[in-house]
Amino acid sequence: MNTIKKQRNIILIYIHTFLSTFILYYICDTLFYIERGLTSSQYISFVGIAFGIRLLLEIPFGIIADKYNKKMLLLISNILFITSTIVFINSYSYYSFLIAIVINAMNNSLNSGIVNSILYESLSDKHKFKKLLFYNSFFYNVSYMIAMIIGGYIGQKFGLVYTYYITIIPFVIDFLILLMIKTNETIKNINIENNVSILKNGIKEVVNNKYLLKSGVLTILGVLAYQGTIGLFFTYVVLFSILKNDKNIKQIIVDILQSGIIGIISICVDLIAVKIIGQIIGTKQTRYGKLSNIFTNIIFIFSQLINTLIDTCDIFPKGVFIIYTILLGTIILIYSIKNKKENALIYEFLAIAIITIASAYIINLTTLTSFNTGRLKNPIGALIGIIFIFIYVKTDIFERKTIFKNITLIVLMTFTLVNVANYVSIILQHKRVNQLEKEESSKIETYIENYEKETNIKINKIAKIRVRNSFQKGYFEEVKNKSDYCKNAIRTDWGIIGALEILENRKLEEIKPTNKEIENYFKNYDSEIGYECIGDTLFINIYNY
Fold first, then answer.
1. How far is CA 122 from the centre of its chain?
2. Which residues lie across from 510 on neighbouring strands?
3. CB half-sphere exposure, 127, CA atoms < 13 A
4. DSSP 8-state symbol, 292
């Protein structure tokens, strides 16, 4: 290409960047999905699916970009985006939205890196490439900012769907701009077989890395079975990487990044599985939140951090976790000071502690509905044991007859005794809770049977009335332990229907009561028992949810 054509190309690419980033509906796409009847969990599943598609197509599309005319690929990408937008406009179901998401993900994978490649080809002086990237990034950010402002205004003023309609306009203009770009013809000297070979070798390397492959498969299975395992996965990766790669910071970082990718894939697979299963059995999963809530949730997590580390969602007795973490940290600190060559120990300890605690809150970044759920705080429960493993492997404290050994052993034994005593107490009290739940369910069943005899109306529905600020009523007075392990399942959002079915063989269909029905219920109900039959429905107070 001559100099004039190259200069024109650069200007046209800047215009293309501005137009292709001018997407008005990005500011309100979540609201649009909700408006069309989708749930937040469905939206989250789209994020996972889009990420997975881009991950799968990034390399093969990169090979295609090396082989074929880049302008043609940008034109195809443009058409794919317009197509996906049109599908969005006409979507009213999960699967129609899914089609749009897939098309758009293909568009994003296809144009990845092509613009930068054209810019590089358009330079006579390759040293100015970074400067061009800066200018291109500037146009991208300016366009994105303006689009967010205008998109928010149009969405509020005229309706969310109009942000999609108007977004098509800049992409049509962009199509015409792309036609004016001059690029090199098909690159003849690119050996597609070599690229395929590189891809094959890369896949082979992953497959042959038995540890990486097994950890990926097992993590996916673990998260599918029990979502709380994802935090433990990150925690153990950090621990064993530090133990294995002694002071090799680069390899430790690589291991953490690899675990992050595996974790993201696992969560995405879980989201998709939950969605599919929910569609099959006809239930909605509401525990996944919106990505837009991340910043607000982070603020909440930090505001509650000390409290949750003190009570640990009842994993340990209150204060035990912080006390023993400080004790072990002090032992490591004193040992490091005494052995000047071991200064890195304290930093490794801090890294393990911080990442472990962070892992306990990962799932809460998008939703706080399960913030106080013990299973999500599994990493906190594992940290003390992890620190003991760390001390055993990285120091010689247990090998010498010193005061360090005695103190560490005392800490270990007292920690064990405290928790064994706590577990025994919880088991005994939980056994008592089971008895009390049976008694309460029998009372409810007797009440229902008497109502049915008096009115000749069969109770076959249940309406759960969520009563806030009644924490104590969610537990039995006879039970001292007011923890997650000793909740009255009869008065939980997740337990009442199953409890009555299992304990009393009474199957009830859940309904959502109207405001008027709730108002009528509160007029006459007995606040002490917290339930009443109205028509064919059992109205019951729920204190834990």
1. 41
2. 462
3. 1
4. G
Nearest to 244 by CA among 128, 126, 394, 365: 394
Instruction: Kindly state the average pLDDT of the residues 501-506.
Output: 90
Instruction: Yes or no: say if 284 and 39 are a contact pair by the CB < 8 Å rule.
Output: yes
Q: Which of 467, 380, 475, 479 is nearest to 429 (CA)?
A: 479
Pairing of strands 537-542, 461-466: parallel
Percent of the chain with pLDDT over 70: 84
Instruction: Judge whether residue 503 has pLDDT over 80.
Output: yes
Q: Is the pLDDT of residue 153 over 60?
A: yes
State both tokens at 43: 């939206």
Yes or no: say if 102 and 272 are a contact pair by the CB < 8 Å rule: no
What 134-143 contacts at long range (C-beta under 8 Å, 24+ apart), as own/partner pairs, is 135/14, 136/13, 136/14, 136/17, 139/14, 139/17, 139/18, 139/21, 140/17, 140/18, 140/21, 142/18, 143/17, 143/18, 143/19, 143/21, 143/22
Q: How far, CA to CA in Å, does 393 sit from each of 176, 234, 239, 244, 398? A: 65, 19, 11, 10, 9
Q: How many other C-beta atoms are found inside a 10 Å radius of the C-beta of residue 24? A: 27
Confidence of residue 254 (pLDDT cuts 50, 70, 90): confident
What is the per-residue pLDDT for 192?
46
Q: In what helix (H) or strand (E) does residue 540 lie, and over which residues does it extend?
A: strand 537-542
Half-sphere exposure of 537 (CA within 13 A, CB side): 17
d(Cα 363, Cα 271) in Å, to the nearest integer? 12
Instruction: Tell me if 237 sits within 8 A of 247, measured CB to CB.
Output: no
Tokens of 533: 């039959």
Q: Phi and psi dihedrals of 16, rounded to 5?
A: -60, -45
Distances (CA, A) of 37 to 32, 34, 43, 98: 9, 5, 11, 14
- 3-class SS string, 15-77: HHHHHHHCCHHHHCHHHHHHHCCCCHHHHHHHHHHHHHHHHHHHHHHHHHHHHCCHHHHHHHH
Q: What are phi and psi of 206, to 5 degrees?
A: -65, -45
> Where do the domains of the chain lie, and which CATH numbers do they carry?
3-193 (1.20.1250.20), 209-395 (no CATH), 428-542 (no CATH)
DSSP designation for 282: T
Find out whether 538 and 531 touch, Cβ atoms under 8 Å. Answer: yes
Q: How far apart are CA 238 and CA 231, in angstroms?
A: 11
Q: In angstroms, what is the C-alpha Rg of the chain?
A: 30
Beta-carbon contacts of 310 under 8 Å, excluding residues fewer than 6 positions away, are 318, 319, 321, 322
Q: From residue 205, how far is each of 59, 199, 212, 271, 440 by CA, in Å?
A: 15, 10, 10, 28, 59
Residue with tokens 């076959």: 460
Residue 536: its pLDDT value, please?
92
